[in-house]
Write a structure and sequence with these properties.
Strand content: 5-15%
Order of helices and strands: EEHHHHHHHHHHEEHHHHHEHEEEE
Number of helices: 16
Largest sheet: 4 strands, antiparallel
Shape: globular
Length: 482
């Protein structure tokens, strides 16, 4: 996808194992060369998966560069599509009957903002990536969200580096691209306020579907991590994101413009979501990976009250105190576990000693043991489950552990405190509010118009796809561990 003719003055070329030679504009390179971004070199993309799959040594750093590249590729393709048809119409030529307007033109500034959003979308990740958010951060701040923290770190990055300048509207646009980009459910008044804040008209709302797409889950973040994670893990990846981009088109649906895909790509899109499930089942949520991640986070929680992160300014801080202090949070990386391992005076501190003991068990491969596993049933399966999962995972785990201990033949040998349950959720990439639903139901498709007629967007029902695809789009497992 690299085209030397598109290089601009100030662009930097990177050699990436996934996308080949890619170029990024000077603003992106300036952001890369900041402490806020460079810390991503010290955060594993797949967390503890590296300790089960030795090839998974890649970091958030290179993933974010890949997402920035693909955001530029996708936006440039749509830019040419819109510009070509507007030019054709202005010249009175025979062109596709799509009601594009001049307000929809994608500018160079739009593309740079999309690339910057792709670059910065994961700034907020903590040690071990996603598991830090679910098993540590939310114990202290229930509403903690790595995407929101990414926006806070982006603000800090700009404040600390005067050479990187964005207008107030571009800055708001980038943050909106990173976080809270679901536009379908917003009121007209809210949409208007966002358009004014970001300096982009409503006709450009389809741009929010490129980096972090909460409308249907198809975005360049997934495109990169499917390709990169499979490559590093040694898995086959048959999904071709470049082909999907080539068959994308902006079409008006009601009052909104959406990125739609050619109807013949429906099987590829199903395969994309299926690839996500396979990736999670085989690697990200592998039973041993789950054990390791739990042990790492338990060590972090135990060390929290006694361990202090050393800072140049402001003095030492607790790990949990970094969650609301971006100057301190930027120092928190995977290196924290080595710091805990080597923390002075830990033998005299009960909590630190317990944390070090857990890390010693990891280092000597004395991991927690899986003693049983169950697949949760639902009424849809014709079952009458004795226990139903709720939205409170901690409460569910406590209830299950209590039930398992009660069935033990020797309650003195098997106690509640010796067990834990790791409730694992597998879904096809659907987002909050639509979990368990078919994600392709939210994707718009189009087909070839007849004699330059207008393009029409439509949904494709599962029953209309030739190959058999799942009837359930969310499942899970309940590993019981000792």
């Amino acid at each position: 996808m690299f085209e030397a003719a598109n290089l601009r003055q100030g662009d930097t070329v990177f050699n990436d194992p996934i996308h080949g030679h890619i170029s990024l504009p000077k603003k992106c390179v300036d952001i890369i060369n900041t402490p806020e971004f460079l810390r991503l070199r010290l955060i594993k993309q797949l967390g503890a998966t590296y300790e089960v799959f030795p090839g998974a040594a890649h970091n958030r750093f290179e993933h974010c560069i890949g997402v920035a590249h693909l955001a530029g590729i996708f936006a440039t393709f749509l830019q040419r599509q819109i510009d070509d048809e507007l030019k054709c119409k202005s010249e009175g030529g025979s062109c596709d009957a799509t009601a594009f307007t001049k307000e929809m033109r994608i500018t160079r500034e739009d593309i740079i903002c999309l690339q910057v959003a792709g670059l910065c979308h994961d700034l907020g990740h903590g040690p071990m990536s996603h598991v830090f958010e679910t098993r540590f951060a939310k114990k202290f701040i229930k509403t903690w969200d790595h995407a929101e923290v990414s926006c806070q770190l982006f603000d800090q990055l700009l404040e600390n580096n005067e050479r990187i300048q964005f207008s107030s509207t571009d800055r708001a646009f980038i943050k909106r691209l990173i976080h809270k980009s679901k536009t379908d459910e917003l009121t007209p008044e809210k949409k208007k306020a966002i358009n004014e804040e970001t300096g982009r008209p409503a006709e450009k709302n389809f741009l929010y579907q490129i980096v972090s797409n909460d409308n249907n889950g198809i975005d360049v973040d997934k495109f990169d991590y499917f390709a990169r994670d499979c490559y590093q893990l040694g898995f086959k990846n048959n999904f071709d994101h470049n082909r999907l981009i080539k068959f994308s088109r902006v079409i008006k649906v009601g009052d909104e413009w959406h990125i739609c895909y050619r109807d013949k790509q429906v099987e590829d899109i199903y395969h994309m979501f299926l690839s996500r499930v396979i990736l999670h089942r085989r690697a990200c949520q592998h039973k041993t990976v789950g054990m390791l991640e739990r042990m790492y986070m338990e060590a972090l929680v135990k060390a929290n009250d006694s361990y202090r992160l050393q800072l140049r300014k402001g003095g030492p801080v607790k790990i949990s105190d970094t969650l609301g202090n971006m100057e301190a949070y930027v120092k928190l990386t995977d290196n924290v576990f080595n710091d805990i391992r080597n923390y002075p005076g830990a033998d005299k501190n009960k909590d630190l000693k317990a944390a070090q003991d857990i890390l010693d068990r990891i280092d000597t491969r004395r991991l927690y043991k899986l003693v049983g596993e169950a697949i949760p049933k639902s009424e849809k399966d014709g079952a009458q489950p004795k226990f139903k999962l709720t939205d409170d995972s901690e409460k569910d785990e406590t209830t299950i552990i209590k039930g398992v201990a009660e069935y033990s033949k020797d309650p003195e040998q098997l106690k509640e405190e010796d067990l834990f349950v790791d409730i694992t959720d597998f879904n096809y990439g659907t987002f909050e509010g639509k979990k368990g639903q078919n994600p392709v139901d939210s994707v718009y498709f189009y087909n070839k118009p007849i004699k330059n007629g207008p393009y029409q967007a439509f949904h494709i029902e599962r029953e209309d796809v030739s190959r058999p695809y799942p009837e359930q789009y969310q499942t899970g497992s309940l590993p019981i561990c000792l």
